[in-house]
Specification:
Blueprint lengths: L1 E5 L4 H12 L4 E5 L10 H6 L7 E4 L2 E4 L1 H11 L9 H16 L2 H8 L2 H24 L4 H18 L2 H8 L2 H12 L12 H18 L9 H11 L2 H8 L5 H13 L3
Bound molecules: glutathione.
Glutathione binds next to helix 1 and helix 3.
């Protein structure tokens, strides 16, 4: 039995859910509420020392990091989402790496607007305040919490730095230009067959769209991306893994009260 620890509406969880849906796999759900910081709880840190989602458990193995998880799933379960030709396999890894190197976390936390953005940014501040307490109360996990604190402090700093956010946002269009160039040549990122690279970019394009960057490929700008995104959205996996992926109301409400009432 596959078990997935994930969070609703989380980009990295959606990448894995897309692959699970493409393969029609059954899996046990372990939803975590990032707004109540369940990902920082000691039991979860023991599974995933970085305190991030997703985490997959299969045959007693704990697998973390969405890029590793999707490749693991592809090795274990048909249909294959890795191309047959070695050159295309390399191309697939390049597209996944290119996306992983892109500062998507900063793009998300820095650009979400309105109340949603305010809550997300406050959640980062709260994490920075909670982590020193967790280090004290769980000395056996001190190292993991200390590393997490560094990451959180850096993120908190970056998303509040207007110039830095401007320079990060300025990298989105050149990235999309690379995608457009490829998709002007081929139907999918690695040629004629849909691959893991396409699952990753489904989640990313969808998130960029939600953040208000959809105009970068609409109205006859980057039309190859526009039709690619339509093809991705037409796949049943998009509905299962992304469209239906809404945070349940009770979870949202407990998250909101945690964030708004946090005082320590
Ligand atoms: N490289 C990791 C990144 C995981 C990650 O940053 N996950 C986010 C959600 S998309 C998360 O758990 N954020 C909560 C936090 O950092 O506290 C992966 O791809 O799995």
């Amino acid at each position: 039995m596959l078990e997935l620890y994930y969070a609703s509406e989380s980009l990295c969880s959606q990448k894995v859910k897309l692959v699970l849906a493409e393969k029609n796999l059954e899996w046990k759900h372990h939803p975590l509420n990032l707004l109540t910081f369940e990902n920082l709880q000691p039991d979860y840190i023991r599974l995933n020392p970085k305190g991030v989602v997703p985490t997959l458990i299969h045959k007693s193995q704990i697998i973390t990091d969405s890029a590793i998880i999707i490749q693991y799933l592809d090795e274990q379960f048909p249909p294959q989402l890795t191309p047959a030709e070695p050159a295309s396999v390399e191309q697939m890894h390049d597209w996944i790496d290119l996306q992983n190197q892109f500062p998507m976390l900063e793009v998300m936390y820095g650009n979400f607007r309105g109340i949603e953005g305010a809550i997300l940014r406050r959640s980062v501040q709260i994490k920075a305040r909670m982590l020193p307490h967790l280090m004290q109360s769980h000395p056996e996990l001190r190292e993991q919490y200390a590393k997490k604190l560094k990451v959180v402090e850096q993120l908190n700093f970056t998303i509040r730095d207007v110039r830095e956010m401007k320079s990060i946002n300025a990298k989105i269009e050149p990235l999309l230009d690379q995608l457009e160039a490829q998709l002007s040549e081929t139907t999918w990122l690695c040629g004629t067959t849909y691959s893991l690279a396409d699952t990753v970019w489904t989640a990313v394009l969808n998130r960029l769209n939600e953040l208000g960057f959809g105009h970068f490929w609409q109205n006859d700008v980057r039309s190859a991306i526009a039709s690619y995104f339509n093809r991705l959205k037409a796949r049943p996996s998009f509905k299962t893994a992304i469209q239906d992926d809404k945070m349940p109301l009770p979870m949202l409400l407990s998250g909101l009260s945690k964030i708004l009432l946090y005082v320590r």
